[in-house]
Amino acid sequence: IFQYGPPCTIPTIQTITQENSQRIRMVWSEEISTDTYEIDYRVAHSSEWTNHSSDTNEFIFTRWRPSTSYEIKIRSVCGTSTTDWSSVQTFQTGDSTAFRVQRCAPSTFK
User: Fold this and answer.
1) Across the strands, what pairs with 37?
2) Pick from 73, 82, 22: which is nearest to 49 by CA?
3) What's the Rg (C-alpha) of the chain?
4) Half-sphere exposure (Cβ direction) of 102: Cα atoms closer than 13 Å
5) What is the pTM of this model?
6) Sequential pLDDT tens for the chain (110 residues)
7) What is the torsion angle, in degrees rounded to the nearest 10, for the CA atoms of residue 40, residue 77, residue 37 and residue 110?
């Protein structure tokens, strides 16, 4: 199969930051050939994922529960094809007054 341009690659989640009581910001590696990114997240171990898309390499979550564990994954969309999902990452939200930064080490990814 001939592919024009760089390959579509799986993004790497770099940071998940609870900026304040209303916002959680996730940043991932920017992939050159990607048109858009799909982000799935859910309360840890629940059955249904919530899906969002982003044209940039960051996403702001504004609807989350305090003191709750979440799972998140991301993939690239390049034209009509998509990559596999990234490894699922887990993060814990703080209470309404606590803020935390979680840096995702590259060694945690496949």
Assistant:
1) 54, 76
2) 73
3) 15
4) 18
5) 0.76
6) 555 556 789 999 999 888 877 788 999 998 888 999 999 999 999 999 999 999 999 999 887 888 899 999 999 999 888 999 999 999 988 875 444 444 554 444 33
7) 70
